[in-house]
UniProtKB/TrEMBL annotation:
The lineage of its organism: Eukaryota, Metazoa, Ecdysozoa, Arthropoda, Crustacea. Belongs to the glycosyl hydrolase 38 family. Coiled coil: none annotated. SMART domains: Alpha-mann_mid, EFh. Its EC number is 3.2.1.24. Residues 1-27 form the signal peptide. One of its GO terms (molecular function) is carbohydrate binding. One of its GO terms (biological process) is oligosaccharide catabolic process. This is alpha-mannosidase.
Length: 1379
């Protein structure tokens, strides 16, 4: 508590100075006594105090002026109330104030005017709404209680009675009369000592604490104080003078006495030390008002006992804050004055490592995994020298380091210091990971503690260092630039040194003290005490009194828990590691080892240190590549100090993955955490993803997670997100407790500035009492450092700051759950107003992702149905499941939030494309093997697979040269082209059937060329007119006169190019100003564009097509076939682009004849509406948005949809709906999207709503065409008249996944996952299973049965059905148990 007393000493001395000045001012004139009935001349008194203040402040340091002025205002005359009265008594200055004058001032302090309009802040306005009514009513009541005359006006005495009844002149007169009447037993009008000591507080009206405290003393001693004239009696005037705080008599006399007593050097002034020595006497003085110090001490409460202790810090001699502060900062500088400052003393002895040798494998830059420790450590190492360079980028170099520690270093802390200008990993001689080094971007990670207390018996050490030729953020020429592939890295340092703990500790002390002095937003007492404490420490250190300097620092930083703010910040160590970004995936594996081993080493030194890490994939890498480190991690997990968080396989993109992929992230992630660590994660951890789907809250609920953390929405460039702790409500109404760390970062350094920023930013003050600080180097990994942990220790309990304690995220979420009734609610998506170019960048990866998602869905369906209908060898089943699981893991890894969005370097993108190709090949082989096992080989015929849960009639193409000898083709009902034969087929829902040609539809498709040169494609559903530039000039539904295309423009399917030059984040951002650079390419007479006019390519009867081409820009080419088949309600745009542009974005735009204030876009398991207007900043910030397979604009009775097979970037403006096709950023991948692209989109006008028009089903079909298989011999084993496996009787309910349960070996079950797609209540949806079923149980996304139990089954011969209700957009999963 001693440091609290230091805070007060200077203030005590300054007040004494004030009293001394008062004495000087009035020493030549004896003050006039106040008598009963006298009135105080408030304006004269105010003038007198202004002079006193003016004289006093001349002697004060400028930095103390605010504090002193505050103290003076709360001093003996209680002038704060006087000043308030004077300020309120405006015009006329008639010595009274009106109710309106007072109320206006009161409201202004709350930030509003009398009419309630906003004047200061939104928070103040909210405070008014909550408290105004009762506050004003209470004030009005107190006002009338104080009135003696005019009820609308108060004089000074009445005002004091209103503000402080104990200072009201009339109230004090009553007290005096009561005391005199009760105690004056002899009736002589005065009180003698005997009468005075009979005073009982309960006998008079002294229920006011301030007055009672004046008499709560030894009455004999008090009698002498009250007896002003020293005649041995107390009269009424003397008693009133003692009670009246406005009477200056005793203030001056007491000031004289205390100054004379304390002024030991007789220089007429009282220094801080002199004041402290007389602390008890000051407290005994009734004019000393401790309450006056509270505001200056950042609302910290001090007791009298606190101030009795002597303060031992010393203020700087000169009163210049800047020089004192910079003195402290220079004393810990890493660059200036290192020959004399603490940084230069960090190591007291050093020794170069001379036994240093090197080996590198050939082409190690291609993959370090070719040369693991077991191979590298047994090679022949050759000597190298400090200053040698190594490379190229991404290469691996191994060093053998033999260390001999001098015996003279016995008992010392010894460090190994390494700097190779890169990241590196330290290995023990026996092949165990020790610790990572990072020598470029992360100060504090360049040393390893060889010994805490060196013993000479352990002087010789052998280590290996694995040097990775890259920094923490790769090897780019700039922050996000492509890597320099020929970069060399210099070995700068390899030495051992004696760590000077004392110098380091003092340096950390001074860093925090200087930061408190510099960063404190209030510039209050804590800041100045920190400044003076640091200065005092420097003086002690430079006088050779280091031990005393430590004591001074210890006194400052010791526990002040009771005086910190009533707000707790839980400091959580982390090392956000991008699974790929400016480095390839393979380097991330080593980043994990370096970062996680650092955390383990810090835990050995700091028992309170808690570290969290997400992404099961990264833990699996550690398990596979660094088993000894994984064992250490498991031990710390058991202790609760190394905490897995997130529950997902990786930190995926928040917008593009499908709903099923989202569920699989949790299924595989939580399974890993449960199997390896015995526990699942309770929070979804996604701090760095580029926006968050509106369906996330329900997905989290479906996988058993109740909490969500991110901070990325703080990156918004237009609107500030209004919450940090809130309830997030998703698409279906599901909620999740959400927290954004208020410092808006996951890489805090635990600096004072971080804490100040956190408190300033926190938007839910008063609603929640805790927040999270995420600290540690991140993105490229690294994590916490010793400096960060030392800072946290010192900042744990600083007056006026929040308590900063170590902890785990669940602590904060548990507290937020208790306070959830106070939290605000956000409904819908968390749209990031930035990085919207990631919906389009790296188009090939996005296309591969969707194809692989669909392929995995289909192979799982086929495998499940095979197992349902046939006995499968356990070994073969395990093989297939293993391949599928590995494929899912690869897919999920490539959904990481810098891979799938396209914001990584070229190496990452090349690897991702190869991984997707590998998934496609491996899973494709499994699909073929299952198909042959299920249905036989091609010798048996041809089959048609429908993986969707509704009946389909489509035109399919049998490739030329394919096995079609068992297809009886009626040439009159077919259409031939160079590649194959088109026929019409039908397939029941979710089935495999014999491929049979269906009759030609009554209305075939045809192509016409009009006289104006345009073309018309028409079928039974629609009629579309196309001009020679490939633009749609008209589209009408058959039998309708309403055109879907806006006739004012007639330019649908306008291929437009825009300049795409963001502010900084090249691959990430499409800025709003790109919309100002629009250029239509497929239009007449466009400069730089060469058109090949449209021509008829096919002319029915089953397929019609028009083809057109153009070249533009830097040699780019686009060709497009506009296709309509006889069974399709949509017009297909089959597009090929050879893209060679730079910083451009290509879009297809469709101005529609629809009045829609919102457009609808598909997302995971549902759809969302977004505005087509720019009414508010929240609206116009969404100029580029994400969507999956379709988007729609509709008015009552009519609408138009666009379907997409692989594009995710959309925009809507008024009646224009646009699809973003390609981008061309140059960083961090200089060749992003350059090359050939093939993709399709489609235009679908419809009557009614998009739900009634089956737009959702058509979009699924557009993405998953019917698949032709070979074989037919085993079809007879399928049950059901139509050979369907599963039937769903409601169109709104989509069966999205059918798979074997994840633990099928022990629990034979098939998992079915459905979602309601229309946004409607669907009661009694009947699901019919055409295979033997034992039971059906509702489960969550982790395939854990729900408490609701099993469902009622209805048998229908060999089939079984069950009924279930669906709420809007609801996801439901079921375990179908097999016999």
């Amino acid at each position: 508590m001693r440091r609290n007393y230091r805070k007060v000493a200077a203030s005590v001395a300054l007040l004494l100075l004030l009293w001394l000045l008062i004495n000087v001012v009035f020493q030549d004139s004896e003050p006039k006594s106040l008598h009963i009935g006298d009135k105080v001349d408030v304006y004269s008194l105010m003038k007198m105090e202004d002079e006193v203040m003016k004289l006093s402040v001349q002697h004060l340091d400028d930095s103390d002026s605010n504090f002193i002025k505050s103290s003076i205002k709360e001093s003996s005359y209680n002038s704060l109330n006087m000043m308030t009265f004077s300020a309120l008594d405006k015009f006329p200055r008639d010595g009274v104030i009106s109710w309106n004058e007072y109320l206006t001032d009161f409201l202004m302090k709350l930030g509003v005017s009398l009419d309630g309009t906003k004047e200061k802040t939104d928070e103040a306005a909210k405070a008014l709404n909550r408290t105004m009514k009762e506050e004003i009513m209470g004030l009005k009541a107190a006002w009338f209680e104080s009135v003696r005359g005019d009820p609308d006006r108060l004089n000074i005495d009445e005002f004091l009675a209103f503000r402080h009844p104990e200072q009201s002149h009339s109230f004090l007169l009553k007290i005096v009369e009561d005391v005199a009447n009760i105690l004056d037993t002899n009736g002589d009008g005065v009180l003698n000592l005997g009468e005075f000591t009979e005073l009982k507080l309960d006998d008079v009206s002294m229920d006011n604490f301030a007055l009672r405290s004046l008499f709560d003393k030894d009455l004999k001693t008090l009698f002498k104080v009250v007896d002003i004239d020293g005649k041995g009696t107390v009269n009424r005037q003397e008693l009133l003078a003692y009670l009246d705080m406005r009477n200056p008599i005793h203030a001056r006399r007491e000031a004289r006495r205390l100054v004379q007593t304390a002024d030991s050097d007789r220089n007429g002034r009282v220094s801080a030390n002199e004041a402290v020595n007389k602390g008890p006497e000051f407290l005994a003085c009734r004019w000393f008002n401790p309450d006056g110090f509270q505001k200056s001490f950042m609302c910290t409460k001090f007791t009298k006992r606190d101030i009795l202790f002597i303060m031992d810090y010393v203020a700087s001699l000169r009163k210049n804050k800047r020089t004192t502060l910079e003195r402290m900062e220079k004393f810990i500088s890493t660059e200036l004055f290192t020959d004399v400052n603490l940084h230069g003393q960090r190591y007291s002895a050093e020794k170069a490592v001379t036994d240093l040798s090197h080996w590198a494998g050939k082409d190690s830059e291609k993959d370090w995994r070719k040369y693991p420790f077991s191979i590298a450590s047994v090679q022949t190492f050759k000597p190298v020298n400090i200053g040698d360079s190594f490379g190229p980028t991404w290469a691996t170099h191994w060093f053998k380091v033999i260390i001999d520690i001098p015996e003279s270093w016995k008992g010392e802390t010894v460090h190994l210091i390494w700097n190779s200008s890169t990241e590196a990993l330290l290995w023990s001689e026996d092949g165990k990971v020790v610790q990572g080094f990072s020598c470029v971007d992360e100060p504090g990670r360049e040393y390893y503690v060889l010994a805490e207390n060196f013993a000479p018996t352990d002087s010789r050490r052998v280590y290996f260092i694995e040097m990775a030729c890259n920094g923490s953020f790769g090897a780019g020429a700039n922050a996000i630039g492509p890597p320099d592939m020929k970069k060399e890295f210099k070995l700068e340092i390899c030495k051992i040194a004696v760590f000077n703990k004392s110098a380091y500790s003092l340096a950390m002390d001074l860093e925090i003290l200087a930061s408190l002095a510099r960063e404190d937003p209030s510039d209050g007492f804590t800041a100045h005490k920190a400044l003076f404490t640091g200065n005092h420490m420097l003086n002690l250190m430079q006088a050779g009194k280091t031990d005393e300097a430590h004591k001074v620092a210890k006194e400052f930083f010791k526990d002040k828990q009771s005086k910190s703010l009533d707000f707790t910040v839980v400091a959580v160590g982390n090392c956000h590691i991008d699974s790929a970004w400016l480095w390839p995936v393979r380097e991330t594996i080593r980043k994990c080892a370096r970062s996680f081993s650092n955390a383990i080493r810090l835990m050995e030194l700091y028992p309170e240190f808690i570290f969290v890490a997400s992404q099961a994939q990264q833990f699996e890498w550690i398990k596979d590549y660094y088993p000894s480190l994984f064992t250490e991690i498991k031990g710390r997990v058991k202790e609760g100090r190394f905490v897995p968080v997130g529950g997902t396989w990786v930190e995926m993109d928040g917008n593009i993955p499908s709903g099923e992929a989202y569920v699989r992230h949790f299924l595989l992630g939580q399974k890993f955490f449960l199997e390896e660590f015995g526990k699942k994660c309770s929070e979804f951890w996604l701090p760095d993803t580029f926006g968050y789907s509106a369906q996330i809250p329900q997905i989290l609920q479906h996988v058993g997670i109740s909490n969500f953390l991110t901070q990325k929405i703080s990156w918004n460039v237009v609107n500030k997100f209004p919450h940090h702790s809130f309830v997030w409500e998703g698409l279906d109404g599901s909620t999740v407790l959400s927290h954004f760390p208020p410092s808006n970062s996951y890489t805090d350094r635990v600096k004072v500035a971080n804490v100040v920023e956190l408190v300033k930013n926190y938007s839910d003050k008063g609603r929640a009492s805790q927040a999270i600080m995420l600290y540690g180097f991140g993105d490229g990994g690294g994590g916490a450092t010793q400096d960060m942990l030392e800072r946290r220790r010192r900042l744990e309990n600083i007056p006026g700051y929040p308590k900063l304690k170590p902890g785990v995220p669940s602590e904060v979420f548990d507290q937020l759950a208790k306070e959830s009734k106070n939290l605000c609610r956000w409904v819908g998506e968390l749209y990031l107003e930035m990085h919207n170019g990631t919906y389009t960048t790296q188009a090939t990866i996005k296309k591969q992702n969707r194809r692989c998602e669909e392929l995995l869905r289909n192979v799982e369906l086929l495998l499940a149905m095979l197992v349902v209908h046939e006995s499968v060898d356990e070994k073969l089943l395990k093989k297939w499941q293993g391949i599928v699981t590995v494929a899912w893991k690869k897919l999920l890894l490539n959904q990481f939030h810098d891979i799938l969005p396209g914001s990584s370097i070229e190496m990452v993108n090349v690897d991702a494309r190869e991984a997707f190709e590998e998934i496609s090949n491996n899973v494709g082989k499994v699909f073929q093997e299952i198909s042959e096992r299920f249905f036989g080989t091609g010798r048996d015929g041809n089959l048609l697979l429908n993986t969707l849960a509704w009946k389909r009639r489509n035109v399919v193409k049998i490739p030329r040269g394919g096995n079609t000898r068992h297809v009886n083709v009626n040439e009159q009902s077919a259409q031939q082209d160079d590649q194959g034969t088109f026929i019409v087929v039908e397939a029941p829902q979710m089935s495999v059937v014999q491929l049979l040609q269906q009759p030609m539809p009554e209305i075939s498709v045809k192509t016409e060329k009009l006289q104006n040169g345009n073309f018309v494609l028409s079928n039974a559903f629609l009629r579309a007119e196309i001009d020679t530039y490939g633009r749609i000039t008209s589209t009408k539904l058959s039998g309708s006169s309403k055109d879907a295309i806006c006739q004012e423009s007639k330019l649908a399917n306008s291929i437009c190019i825009y300049d795409d030059i963001p502010l900084f984040w090249d691959a990430w951002d499409v800025m709003d100003y790109h919309l100002e650079t629009r250029k239509i390419l497929n239009a007449p007479n466009v400069e730089g564009v060469k058109m090949k006019p449209a021509r008829i390519l096919q002319n029915g009867p089953l397929v019609s097509a028009v083809e057109w081409e153009m070249s533009f820009g830097n040699g780019s080419k686009l060709s497009q076939r506009i296709i309509l088949d006889a069974e399709s309600p949509y017009l297909i745009f089959e597009t090929n682009v050879d893209w060679k542009e730079s910083h451009k974005i290509l879009k297809a735009e469709f101005p529609l004849n629809v009045l829609a204030r919102n457009a609808t876009y598909e997302i995971q398991y549902g759809h969302v509406e977004r505005p087509t207007h720019a009414n508010t900043s929240w609206d116009w910030a969404k100029y580029e948005v994400v969507g999956h397979r379709w988007a729609d604009m509709s008015e009552c009775g009519f609408g138009v949809s666009l379907l997409s097979e692989c594009k995710y970037g959309w925009s809507s403006d008024g009646n224009k709906l646009s699809l973003s096709l390609l981008r061309a950023p140059k960083s961090p991948d200089a060749n992003a999207d350059i090359g050939a692209h093939a993709f399709k989109y489609a235009l679908m006008p419809h009557a009614g709503t998009f739900q009634s028009a089956n737009v959702i089903q058509r979009a699924h079909e557009f993405n998953q065409p019917l698949k032709i298989l070979h074989g037919a011999a085993r079809l007879g084993k399928l049950a059901g008249a139509e050979s369907s496996w599963i039937e769903v009787d409601q169109r709104a309910v989509i069966l999205d996944a059918v798979k074997l349960s994840d633990n099928f070996k022990t629990h034979r079950a098939v998992v079915l996952r459905f979602y309601e797609s229309f946004g409607s209540h669907v009661p009694l949806t009947n699901v019919t299973l055409h295979f033997p079923v034992k039971a059906v149980t509702a489960c969550n996304g982790l395939e854990e049965p729900l408490k609701s139990g099993g469902l009622k089954l209805n048998s229908h011969g060999a089939s079984t059905s069950f009924a279930v209700d669906f709420k809007p957009f609801q996801i439901q999963s079921f375990l179908v148990e097999l016999f």
